[in-house]
Amino acid sequence: MPAPDSTRRDFLTGKAAARSLSDSVGSLGASGEGTDGACVLNVARPAMACQFEFRVLSTATHNTGPAAIEALDLVEAIEDQLTVYRDQSEVQEINRTAALHPIPVEPGLFALLEQADALYQETGGAFDLTAGPLSKAWGFFERRGRVPSEAELAAAMAHVGWGRVCLDRTEKSIQFTEPGVEINFNSIGKGYALDRAADLLAERGAPDVLLHGGGSTLVARGQNRAAGVPGWLAGLGDPLRSGRRLGEFLLRDEALSTSGAATQKFVQGGKRYGHLIDPRTGRPAEGVHSVTVLAPTGAAADALSTAFYVLGWEGAEAYCGGHADVRALFVLPTPGGGVDVRTLNLPEDAWRRYP
Fold first, then answer.
1. How far apart are CA 23 and CA 215, in angstroms?
2. Annotated binding site for Mg(2+): which residue ranges?
3. Which residues make Cβ contacts (< 8 Å) with residue 69, sequence separation at least 6?
4. CB 197: neighbour CB atoms within 10 A?
5. Which helix (H) or strand (E) element contains residue 250?
6. How far apart are CA 216 and CA 25, in angstroms?
7. Is residue 272 within a helix (H) or strand (E), and if so which, with residue range?
């Protein structure tokens, strides 16, 4: 059932919700054309096992098309660097050799590793780039879910834990303390790529953009003048009913990411297992339908939506209590089969639930 029609003035004054253009998290308000000839240019390309789509404001005097294509090229280059599915990537070279000796790391990637280190500490280990062996043990790495034996799980856990990674901030290098450790950027890579793309677009004179990877992680900068919106509109999908939306966000110079296990899961022995694994226990996290996080950067939103799914409501509440610039929306199950929508640090003018 589609959301009701309304005016953007109604949305901004809290009277009603504006309509999104799609059912995904990456939806936009109507494009139209602004009084200065502004219109939204839409470019897209597959990368990182999903579709990256960039909505970039152009005007009659400034064609942002070449910059948008350059930004998509940058995403592809970052995928080449971060992927664990290509033997020649920088990350795979790290995984092969960092247990033998320190490996120098490209500055941008090293900054991302430092951010991952901070997030690991802040979330009490709920966010951990070394959790790849667990994804393999549960069959999610190859999208063939299975329940591992206790011996297999213990073998995987023996190589998981950020404490097995050493970062040398002077040399900008990384080293593992033992063989078998590996890093995987699946839980932060899309957000990082979107941050870098948004930075490049700003440098090329395109500061007004909404960028998303797979509809689940977005970076919004500037505003959509073509639609008369002081920001960008993004719809929130219902995790239980495909094609429906729960509500809509107004994003202003921030990032958004949603994590859930609705699309990557399997059922065995009558029990459902999702792909979001708690690296502290080695087992899939439970008790949450979806988590949406709004944060200053795409990398932070991407990582924290995963961490909050693992931490659950109480853990996320504690985190947000100490981080006023991080906001969250949880969709939680209720005993009757419905959903309970709860928010953290989310002001009324930034979010609207559909009736």
1. 9
2. 187, 302, 306
3. 43
4. 26
5. strand 245-251
6. 6
7. strand 271-274
Please list, residue by residue across 239-254, b when 16 or more beta carbons sit within 10 angstroms of its beta carbon and e when fewer do: bbeeeebbbbbbbbeb
Q: Give the model confidence (pLDDT) of 151-192 as tens digits.
A: 999 999 999 999 999 999 999 999 999 999 999 999 999 999
DSSP string, 156-195: HHTT--GGGEEEETTTTEEEESSTT-----TTTHHHHHHH
- The set of residues, in sequence order, having a beta carbon less than 8 Å from that of 22 and lying 6+ positions away, is 28, 215, 235
CA angle 298, 303, 309 (to 5 degrees): 125
* Residue 264, token pair as written in the block: 């990557």
Contact 228, 30 (CB under 8 A): no
**Annotated binding-site members:** 187, 302, 306
- pLDDT tens-digit series, residues 118-149: 999 999 999 999 999 999 999 998 888 899 99
Strands in 171-244 per DSSP E: 173-176, 209-213, 217-221, 232-237
Tell me the CB-side half-sphere exposure of residue 221, using CA atoms within 13 A: 24
Q: Which backbone phi and psi does 86 adopt, to 5 degrees?
A: -130, 125
What are 269's two structure tokens?
Answer: 């022995």
For the chain, domains (ranges, CATH) are: 83-176 (1.10.3980.10)
Q: Which residue has the tokens 């003018």?
A: 349
| Count of helix runs (H) and strand runs (E) in the chain | 8, 18
